[in-house]
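Justification of resources, computational component.

The compute hours requested in this renewal are based largely on the per-chain cost of generating structure records like the one below. Each record pairs the submitted sequence with a full C-alpha cell output. That output is archived, and it is also reused by downstream analysis tasks.
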Amino acid sequence: MAVGMTTERDESTLLLTFMHNMGYVDKMKAVEVRELSEALALDRQLVEETLRKLESDGYVASTRQRGGEASFYLTGKGVIRVCSIYT
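The structure output for this chain reads:
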C-alpha cells in the first residue's frame, strides 16, 4: 500500500476511535461530518461515506440537530467495538 493511502477498515477504525476518545457517544455530543473531516484531515465525502457504512453496521447513529446538518455519535455497539480494539 502506498504511503498516505488508507483502507476502509483503517478509516472506520480511525473514525470510531477518534469519536470515542473525543466523547462523541450520545445524541447531545454528536459531531458533524465537517468537524470530523477537518480534525482528521480527511476528505469530507470519504468521512461521510465511511460514517454511513458504520451507521448501517450499527456502530454510529445520526441526528439532525445543529442547523439541519447530519451529526453522528457512537452507539453502544460502536463503543464496544472501540474497546475491543484495545484488548
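Confidence is low (pLDDT under 50) at residues 1-6. The longest strand covers residues 60-64.
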